[in-house]
Recover the amino acids of this structure.
């Protein structure tokens, strides 16, 4: 059986021929000697590696294409709960044995769950890579997820929710998603709710594990002092035939998210905080939209650095906040642009007025040529600087494969950024900043105050 | 004039002969081709560089040996306030020009202030290192610190204090220092207080700048794709003779901190949080105490990883918390050992009982040979893994030089960790865990509740 994967080399390039299962494709060989390779194993499980000269370590990631976006409200938080539970034990290892094996070599092992994927990872000295593959593969294939462990871990997850609630800068982000995406799977928190977590049964969580952790949805990535052939051998030995699968990688997430929200909607968590924490934003394009490069340039110039308009107007000239900045988030078929600010309640009206004024001005007039050029430079430099450690390289491989089904060399992304023109940015600004906005607020307010903000 | 610096090569090694001003010493040449060099320039300013093969970037740091420990209560927060103010403009650059220059190349420029030092840093592509040196040197030598900028930045710093207060995990750390070190310079927050910040004048802050930012207190460090000779030329050109100095590096901080605290003291910030955030701890040794390596092994085994006693007993077996862990902090002549936990109020009595029980048990019986071996492995691996990026290397050079006046090769630190024996750990545990403890609490309590905790 052959796989249908398309291994792209960037914008405008012709798609190369599909690579048969078991054959390895060389995707990149860069000027400092880095080498990216990719193989699809027989179950449909994909393996990507990137060698980095000059490092002593490797970071391994096992990515599973499941996240909170796949959950119904009744089982909200299952993917994240499961991610916790996997560390509690497997058919051959206790939680203590898992932890001890990694601590003994000074490695860092952890995991995170997002809306569209779950990732288990370990950063180790290169000589300990076999241990990392063995341990993480064991979690992903042979976790026992016992009822007793589930009860114990339920409290831990509830404590994690409480911790999020206590950190207003975290709480406001979850509230913003809820306000923007409403009652959809993207609107719900990755953590779930106290109610959904209290209601999860062993069958819910273990069933989720058995159905979702299948070879076609799994991508193994490793970066650092690694050898592709060695990683393939380790992965083959560790996974064996323990993962079921169609033999082909799972299809990409696509499609648009239908969200119907009232205009100018707002959400509030009333709390006696010193600062009011605000997120103001609007829906944006999804990750397959080619306008995302122009949007990234826009985001950088508006709120991405110390020279950005929002930082200069609100912090530098007026000293109204400690933190202010913007962010773009992309999912399949949906996305968000948002501005964060934290300040004392008495400064909120002026801060909101300045943010809205700046967004309106950019929507009407676009950016100057200087701003566009600077933002391109900022993105280019930031991209390269952000890829100097094994963890970020490992992460880039995993996210690219799960999100786009292809690896795009860094130089091609740099070229796409360079190709962004002032007119494209103006067009994206007019679109994004002309939309109805959502506001999420954590602070000392009542619901009835929201209309005046 | 010659300098009196001692460039050590690690434990047990004879100190090499002092290196004359202007001459460069090769301090290390490691197996992956890294090279560490050091030069003292004529004003007493020190320059250390570390080359890292295989990277495209460089991180530059300008370290100034001044921090909140040097402040009196009336001007608490001056060092940190000054760190903010430097970015507001110099005799030749506005705040916008400073920010624009760095954003245009995608570099990251920032600064932080600690109790014993202040650091300005920039991470840039290697070709932008000249820009980074020019900009940061300008801040450190030619900031104007105008009264108008001071007024504007005063609000920003007050907002930063409010932000700290809203994050219970941050607030509890400052409260712990205050509880443990009492009314001493180490007990006060780096941020200062609302009162001290409101009272600072331009003379206070600019006076602090003129008196403290002198060549003998400054260390410039750079790591990554750097060349020592090039960095020396850039630093010499950028600083010129604009910094006064004795010509010799400033003496090391030494001496003991006299702290008189009541037994079992406790501090509280009463807040309606979901979780109670706790720090329980005791004074520890200062950074020149050779027992710190045994203490690091102890800390790792007790609360440093997922296999540690506290994590296993409190989270893994009983599911009582999301976060629990221990930490060691060293200053000149003083230090702290502490355990952090966050959990719902109803679980606090059991969590505190378990923490105290574990510390008592280790104080009485020490650790097992297995635990000591594993903790050594954890520290060794963690040390090497933690030094693979240019920022951490740059930081290590700066802290070592300011704190110890010497560079210790990584392999020598690894050897010191390896030399830690079970009996030494037992002796340190009996000492540290036998001391009267302090407790800092952020959560829904009253002062009168503290006695029962």
């Amino acid at each position: 059986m052959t796989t249908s994967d398309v291994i792209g080399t960037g914008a405008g390039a012709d798609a190369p021929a599909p690579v048969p299962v078991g054959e390895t494709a060389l995707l990149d060989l860069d000027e400092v000697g880095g080498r990216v390779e990719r193989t699809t194993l027989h179950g449909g499980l994909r393996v990507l590696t990137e060698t980095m000269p000059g490092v002593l370590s490797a970071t391994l990631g096992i990515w599973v294409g499941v996240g909170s976006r796949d959950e119904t409200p009744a089982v909200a938080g299952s993917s994240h709960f499961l991610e916790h539970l996997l560390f509690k034990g497997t058919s051959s290892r206790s939680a203590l044995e898992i932890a001890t094996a990694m601590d003994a070599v000074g490695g860092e092992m952890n995991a995170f769950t997002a809306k569209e994927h779950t990732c288990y990872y370990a950063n180790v000295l290169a000589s300990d890579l076999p241990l990392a593959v063995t341990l993480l593969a064991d979690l992903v294939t042979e976790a026992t997820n016992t009822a007793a462990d589930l009860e114990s871990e339920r409290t831990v997850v509830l404590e994690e929710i409480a911790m999020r609630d206590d950190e207003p800068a975290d709480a406001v982000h979850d509230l913003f998603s809820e306000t923007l995406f409403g009652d959809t799977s993207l609107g719900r928190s990755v953590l779930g709710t106290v109610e959904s977590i209290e209601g999860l049964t062993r069958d819910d969580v273990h069933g989720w594990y058995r159905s979702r952790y299948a070879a076609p949805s799994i991508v193994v990535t490793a970066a650092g002092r690694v050898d592709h052939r060695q990683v393939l051998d380790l992965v083959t030995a560790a996974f064996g035939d323990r993962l079921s699968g169609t033999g082909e990688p799972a299809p990409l997430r696509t499609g648009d998210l239908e969200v119907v929200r009232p205009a100018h909607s707002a959400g509030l968590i009333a709390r006696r905080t010193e600062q009011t924490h605000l997120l103001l934003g609007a829906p944006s394009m999804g990750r397959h939209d080619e306008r995302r490069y122009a949007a990234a340039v826009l985001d950088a110039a508006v709120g991405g650095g110390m020279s950005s308009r929002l930082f200069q107007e609100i912090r530098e000239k007026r000293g109204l906040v400690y933190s202010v900045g913007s962010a773009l988030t992309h999912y399949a078929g949906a996305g968000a642009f948002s501005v964060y600010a934290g300040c004392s309640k008495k400064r909120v009206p002026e801060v909101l007025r300045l943010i809205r004024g700046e967004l309106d001005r950019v929507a009407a007039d676009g950016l100057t040529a200087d701003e566009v050029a600077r933002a391109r430079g900022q993105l280019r430099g930031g991209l390269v600087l952000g890829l100097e450690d094994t963890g970020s390289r490992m992460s880039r491989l995993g996210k690219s494969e799960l999100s786009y089904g292809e690896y795009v060399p860094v130089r091609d992304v740099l070229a796409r950024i360079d190709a962004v023109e002032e007119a494209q940015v103006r067009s994206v600004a007019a679109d994004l900043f002309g939309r109805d906005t959502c506001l999420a607020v954590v602070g000392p307010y009542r619901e009835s105050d929201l209309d005046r903000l």
About this structure: Residues 17-243 of chain B form a domain with the Cytochrome Bc1 Complex; Chain A, domain 1 fold (CATH 3.30.830.10). Residues 46 and 400 of chain B are 12 Å apart (CA to CA). Chain B touches chain A through 82 residues (CB under 8 Å). The radius of gyration of chain B is 23 Å.
